[in-house]
Amino acid sequence: FFQKFTQPKAESSKRKHRSSCACATSLFFLVVVSISSMSHSSWCTAGGSGKGVCPFSVALFAGSAFSYLNYVRLRSKSAVAKCCIDEHKQTYIIAGDIGGTNSRFALHRPGQKDPLLVHIYPNEEALKTAPTYHHATLMPFLKKCLAEVDEWKALGEKEVLSQIQIVGCLATAGPVTTNNDVFMVNLGENGGSIDGNEIEQCQDGLLSLVVRCKLVNDFVGQGYGVLDLDYDKEVIELLPGSKAKMNDLAPICCVGAGTGLGECFLTKSSLATKLGYECYPSEGGHADYVPRGPLEVELLDYLKRKFSSDHRISVERVVSGRGLANVYEFLAQKFPTKVDKSVHEEFLNAGDQQGRVIGVNSSTEGSLAQQAVQIMCAAYGSEVGNAALKFIPTGGMFVTGGLAPKNIGMIQGEDSPFMKAYLDKGRMNGLIESIPIFAVMNEDVGLRGARVCAEREYNAM
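Structure tokens predicted for Glucokinase (461 residues):
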């Protein structure tokens, strides 16, 4: 199943051919060995008396039988997966980009990039009363589709339930298990779970339309979404000449800060480049935060106390929307005389939007809000540089997520806090300067990638 999901349809058909050949081979050996064991068992008996059964034939028979039964088992599983699609119904694609703060959904027809409907739900508000994540966000989105998408409106709810089916992919901010579920540490106050199998099995009203709901890591979505960008209109070169330096056979890396911090990389097979890029998630945002100066050392100590950690703090505690809030909290307690009371009061009452409050107020020269954004952006650039050293992504390093376009003034330019830290890699400065790097100015990259993943899932069914 994983191979089906990660490979194009053409490759899937080749595997089917090989499986058919394996089946034919197994059947051939079954027949030949059966005849051999019945007609020539005397070959292996003492004196050729013709009594008994050849042990070698029995072993071959057992091996062939096992191979064939395993093939039947795998084909049965494939048949179960295929039966999810009813060829008499109209299929739609739902893409979801599920972050810690917001859930973005888009409805598409298969094979079409332009969405029929897009909507964003703030998680904190949506999750207050609903029993499950899918009741909190996916159900309202389906109701919105019924109310606003012309072809759904024309059918009415009863006909929609009988004539439409949905294949979806949700790109979620957390490590997805092999059971198609995820626990997102940034979802809600104490984290929350999303279960793709539970969504598929739910028969509650419009949720019953979903016949397949694949979960992927949110940065798998970001990675595939990067491939869908217009590099002339939707990105900014952070080093001059980056577009000209891109190597279309080389790795691509994506690092993005929003509510949390995510990282992924993409590669092509050197033996089959026509298959395109394959994206691999990581939890690089939870690598250790490394302070770059005396004030940041104090920040590290503060965060270790705050989060009851004796030895380390993850870089996400600094480089993210919530990380920005952490940095401001530290500065406010260290420099109480510099606190702007109105900004501080707004910050304290902002809930999960505290980082946004600091970002909005960071244009005030000399303010703690400005200093907090500078510290965060320097740590951001340093971490992006670390990823560049690890993957050498001469296919492109892409800085994505909501914080990049909102703070582009502190990211763009070689004298910005971000780029100063990014380029500060000692003996490897020359290598870092050779890597094309871009800031992505669109915030729908994860949603685009989730659509690509949903299309792959649909084509594999």
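The first helix runs from residue 2 to 6.
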